[in-house]
Each structure stands twice: as C-alpha cells, then as structure tokens.
Amino acid sequence: MRFTKATNYALHTMLMLVDASPVKPVGVQQLAESQGVSPTYLSKILTRLVKAGMIESISGANGGYRLSRKRDDITFLDIIHAIEGTASLFDCNFVHGDECLIQAVMKEAEEKMESHLKNTKLADLAQRETKV
To answer: What is the distance between the alpha carbons of residues 30 and 98, in angstroms, rounded to a whole number?
Structure first.
C-alpha cells in the first residue's frame, strides 16, 4: 500500500507545526527547507490542510502557518484524508456486487488500518520524538 509523497510531506509538516509555538507562525520556506522540498509544492499541500481546517495561514512579513485545531485532536487519518481524500484504497473491478469476498477482505483490512490511524495522534508522536 502506498500513499503519495504529498501525504508524506503533509505528515512531516504537521509534526513540525505540532512541535512549533502555537502563537508564532512557521514560514513556508522554513517548512520546505527542513524537508528538502520546493516551497511552491509544499504551499499546495498546505492549502489542502488549511481547507481541511487543521492549520491556518497568517499573512504578512512574519506570516506563515500554525495549527488551527488543538494539537491533541489531530490524527494521522485526518491528515491522510485531507491529502488523499476518503475514497477506498481498493475497488473490485468485476461486476458481481457487494457480495465480492475479495472486496470484503480488503475493506476489513482498510477499516482496521483506518482505525489505527484514527487512534494515532500527532501530539503523541511529538512527545515520543522529544523523549528520544
């Protein structure tokens, strides 16, 4: 199973923002440099996170991005859905309806994965990172 690079950058960016000051925004240049990605590309990802209501954009010379939700409420699944959408990872191509046994197994696996990602908070990961 693979997610796009955009999801990878979004997860790392959000981890940085969870660690950052809730008052002082972090500039897109700083966020991009820390990951070795172009600011233009990262800006597109940040726009999706803004639209999802996880971060806010602050304009001006000292502008940038900061969390708009409580850091303890942000899950891996929230970020993945903001970038990848909520469509199923697997869709059976055969025309035999909902009784497809293969589709049922894949859907169950996806539900378990989503449950794990929904229960994994970015703030918990940030705490583990600071202990290392």
So the answer is: 48
Tokens for 113?
């994965």
Residues 6+ apart with CB under 8 A from 63: 25, 27, 57
For residue 58, what are the β-bridge partners?
A: 64
Q: What is the pLDDT of residues 79-92, one digit of tens each?
A: 999 999 988 888 77
Q: What is the pTM of this model?
A: 0.87
Task: Classify 26 as helix, strand or coil.
Answer: strand
Q: Which residues pair with 121 in a beta bridge?
A: 75
66 close to 55: Cβ distance less than 8 angstroms? yes
- The three state secondary structure string of 31-89 is HHHHHCCCHHHHHHHHHHHHHCCCEEEECCCCCEEEECCCHHHCEHHHHHHHHHCCCCC
